[in-house]
Amino acid sequence: MNKLFIDNRAIEFITKALAKENSSAMRVFISGGGCCKQIEITPVNKALAGDVTNDQDGIRVHIEKQIADNTDSIEILFDEKKGLLIYFEKNQENL
After folding, report:
1. Rounded to an integer, what distance in angstroms lies between the CA atom of residue 87 and that of residue 40?
2. Are 54 and 6 in contact (CB under 8 A)?
3. Residues contacting residue 17 through CB under 8 Å, at least 6 positions apart
4. Where are the domains positioned within the chain?
5. Domain 3-90 falls in which CATH fold?
6. pLDDT of residue 93
7. Are the beta carbons of 54 and 45 closer than 8 angstroms?
8. Model's pTM, two decimal places?
9. Quick one: average pLDDT of 10-39?
């Protein structure tokens, strides 16, 4: 993964969530299994082994290695109705 972008509204939302949870970072990871995999983002205090860590505007984001290895960029946006939205640009080598 080469690029992480977090829009200003997402930064504001994440900053408040981190303070509320008394956490220092967010973690983006794959949960579930089989046909029911989903991407989650949750407050954490430390990275797990293999996570790739990025910082933007005071927000630290740990990204699960499998996601980081298979994407070129990640964009985190905030929508008033839907909450946090995570978009991935797939790494063309792994298609």
Report:
1. 12
2. no
3. 23, 26, 43
4. 3-90
5. Hypothetical Protein Aq_1857; Chain: A; (2.60.300)
6. 58
7. no
8. 0.87
9. 93
